[in-house]
Write a structure and sequence with these properties.
The chain is an alpha+beta fold. 56% of the residues lie in helices and 16% in strands. The chain contains four helices and three strands. A three-stranded antiparallel β-sheet has the order 2-1-3. Helix 2 crosses helix 3 (54-67). The chain starts with 10 loop residues before the first helix and ends with a strand. 21% of the residues are buried. This is ATP-dependent Clp protease adaptor ClpS.
Length: 97
């Protein structure tokens, strides 16, 4: 290596850069707060539809309640569309953004 060449990035650095690029293309499945659905209903729907653990679903539900919305899943439109439809069919407002 001469004095003008730059060192090659480490494999770990490359993986992080790739993850950032992939995340930029990922869409969010957003669930919105309402005054109708119970915490337990939203938790059960997130567990069933998004395959969340009980703890993940509980945390998302609290964020939804206090902040008005929460990104419950990231992915492609093809992955998220059936999930969004299932959440909407359960009476919970959701959107892909």
């Amino acid at each position: 290596m001469n004095q003008f060449s730059m060192p090659l990035p480490e494999l770990e650095e490359i993986e992080l850069l790739l993850e950032e690029l992939i995340d930029q293309d990922a869409l969010d499945l957003i669930v919105f707060n309402d005054d109708v659905n119970t915490f337990e209903h939203v938790i059960q729907v997130l567990i069933k539809v998004c395959k969340h653990t009980h703890e993940q679903a509980e945390q998302c539900t609290l964020i939804i309640h206090y902040k008005g919305k929460c990104s419950v899943k990231k992915g492609s439109r093809e992955e998220l569309k059936p999930m969004c439809e299932a959440i909407l069919n359960a009476g919970i407002q959701a959107a892909i953004v």
